[in-house]
Write a structure and sequence with these properties.
Elements: E1 2-13, H1 20-26, E2 28-45, E3 54-57, E4 61-64, H2 73-81, E5 88-94, H3 104-120, H4 126-140, H5 148-155, E6 158-163, E7 169-173, H6 178-186, E8 188-192, H7 199-208, H8 214-232, H9 238-251, H10 261-272, E9 277-280, E10 288-292, H11 298-304, E11 309-310, E12 321-325
Parallel strand pairs: 3-5
Antiparallel strand pairs: 1-2, 1-12, 2-5, 2-6, 3-4, 6-7, 8-10, 8-11, 9-10
Helix pairs in contact: 2-3, 2-4, 3-4, 3-5, 4-5, 8-9, 10-11
Length: 330
């Protein structure tokens, strides 16, 4: 039995510049962090006592005999990538809902890859794991997804990720003190809107609009650089929240599917209650809303957004890892 634990992520700045359709020509930069809510993947070799060869348990249960019969796209393509022949049982559990803007699909894929390489006795460094996950999601499954999620949940921590025109990347921890990082954490609120959606469908419209959104994407890149300078300086941390607000207002113009009346009204109420900025995480359209506000205004904002579920959180630093590796007694 192998169990992996992979964090979810919060994307602060630069979303949209991590699509290969953009960064392979222009470069890209994002600020993201993992936090203390997780995707768990358990994997064990399935004894040959059953009619089926593979058992996959997530929001549904699949019993299949060959890999091509697997409906879950990430499980199917990841097992095919590693040319898995032995029978496996795979279970998924998550601390938070899927399809909600927290990079949950990438956390699933990365966690499954981590479990498989442990089971197979392979060595892959964290860059290899992230590259494999990106290839599976973008090339094998064919999803319209950016490239930040696979990296941030693999590496863990609060990072600046640069994407280069040659297809390479760098992931560097943002060099700030633990006190500064705690101050940032203390200014953030996370709410679940109750709306689940398929991010790939929303991201597709963003990718299709890239040629007409070049100005906005460059503005988003500029704001990412400003936010990085704010974090690394002794400037008022509230400037980070104001930059979030600017970035959100630009992001909403990238596709008509990024926001809706429910989101706009909730964001407006949060701002009236003292928020300085925020955004819908991930591709948009629903999922989780991040709000930045001085701690003394948090109570008012929670009241204003009482129809949403507040989720307390703290940053984490470890990224994906194996938490249990126990040999089978069979």
């Amino acid at each position: 039995m192998i169990i992996t634990k992979t964090p979810y992520r919060i994307s602060f700045f630069g979303g949209g510049t991590d699509f290969p359709e953009w960064y392979l020509e222009n470069g890209g930069k994002v600020i993201s962090s993992t936090f203390d809510k997780y995707c768990y993947i358990s994997l064990r070799e399935l004894p040959p006592f059953f009619e089926h060869k593979h058992r996959i348990v997530y929001s549904k249960i699949e019993h299949v005999s060959i890999l091509d019969q697997i409906e879950h796209p990430s499980v199917r393509e990841t097992l095919k990538y590693f040319d898995i022949d032995k029978g496996l049982e795979i279970h998924h559990d998550g601390d938070l809902p899927a399809r909600s803007g927290l990079g949950s699909s990438s956390s699933f894929t990365v966690g499954l890859i981590k479990a498989l390489i442990s089971n197979l006795g392979l060595y892959k460094d964290i860059a290899d794991i992230a590259r494999i996950a990106t290839s599976i999601e973008q090339d094998k499954i064919g999803e319209y997804v950016g490239s930040q999620d696979q990296l941030i949940v693999t590496y863990g921590g609060l990072n600046i990720i640069d994407f280069y025109t040659d297809g390479n990347f760098s992931v560097e921890p943002i060099p700030i003190s633990s006190k500064r990082k705690e101050l940032l954490n203390d200014h953030l609120l996370l709410f679940f809107t109750g709306i689940s959606r398929f991010s790939s469908e929303i991201s597709k419209s963003q990718v299709e609009n890239i040629s007409q959104n070049k100005l906005q994407l460059r503005e988003i890149s500029d704001l990412t650089n400003q936010a990085l300078k704010t974090l690394m300086s002794n400037d008022n941390i509230e400037d980070f929240g104001r930059l979030l607000n600017e970035s959100w207002n630009i992001k909403k113009t990238l596709s008509k599917n990024i926001t809706n009346n429910t989101i706009d009204q909730a964001y407006k109420e949060a701002m009236k209650a003292g928020a300085l900025g925020g955004k819908i995480l991930g591709a948009g359209g629903g999922g989780f809303m991040l709000i930045f506000a001085a701690p003394e205004n948090h109570f008012k904002i929670k009241e204003a957004l009482s129809s949403f579920t507040h989720v307390p959180f703290e940053f984490e630093t470890e990224g994906t890892k194996v938490v249990l590796h126990q040999e089978s007694g069979l």
